[in-house]
Design goal:
Chain lengths: 113, 113
């Protein structure tokens, strides 16, 4: 079975620009997560979707970050405008039903200059 | 609220030596515990998980971990390190069947020839 796909893999932008990341989950995985992993730290949850509905976005900086999961499959995470401190790896993970395991994509490495 | 403490941001061992990576957690409810491994420029891969069954859990690549409730620990071990084990290792906790992961800061394992 194909894994979680993410694109782009790398992105360099200047501060105040906007950027978007895309995630395609494993087929049949209804739950989707976006994490932010700053260098030297563990991943931090930004937002959780169940199908196309938001379950938890308490850690999402909503003044600049937005995410959607139209049709309950692919998801996009957007940052507008970007700040220097947004430089990080953005990881997408998905989970099937009541199984405990989250499966992670390779991540998008963002550098904001 | 949940939290994870990984003692030692960097562990160095010789090839063939015992690997011990430490993880202590706090959780207000019976936890599920996970160890993930991250190779350079890749996403996280599940090594093993504890979900309230056997306290000694065996995972992939010869790793195992033991859940000790009295010590609130879930240390990761491998009897004999291999060069291919060099990576970053993350311990994570979720509050039972909630499945929302809180990660530690990670431990970078270096294996010397």
């Amino acid at each position: 079975e194909a894994g979680v796909a993410q694109s782009p893999r790398y992105k360099i932008i200047e501060k105040r620009q906007s950027v978007a990341f895309w995630c395609n989950p494993i087929s049949g995985h209804a739950t989707l997560y976006w994490y932010q992993q700053i260098l030297g730290q563990g991943p931090k949850l930004l937002i959780q979707f169940q199908n196309n509905g938001v379950v938890d976005d308490s850690q999402l900086p909503k003044d600049r970050f937005s995410a959607e999961r139209l049709k309950g499959v692919d998801s996009t995470l957007k940052i507008q405008p970007a700040k220097l401190e947004d430089s990080a790896v953005y990881l997408c993970a998905t989970r099937r039903g009541m199984q405990e395991t989250q499966y992670f994509g390779p991540g998008t490495r963002l550098l904001v200059l | 609220a949940q939290s994870v403490t990984q003692l030692g941001s960097h562990v160095s061992v010789s090839e063939g030596a015992l690997v011990l990576l430490r993880c202590n957690y706090s959780s207000s409810v019976p936890p599920y515990l996970f160890w993930y491994v991250q190779y350079p420029n890749q996403g996280l891969q599940l090594l093993l998980k504890y979900t309230s069954a056997a306290t000694l859990v065996k995972g992939i690549n010869g790793f195992e971990a033991e859940f000790k409730k009295s010590e609130t620990s879930f240390h990761l071990t491998k009897p004999s390190a291999h060069m291919s084990d060099a990576a970053e290792y993350f311990c994570a906790v979720s509050p039972g069947s909630n499945y929302k992961l809180t990660f530690g800061k990670g431990t970078l394992l270096t294996v010397n020839p």
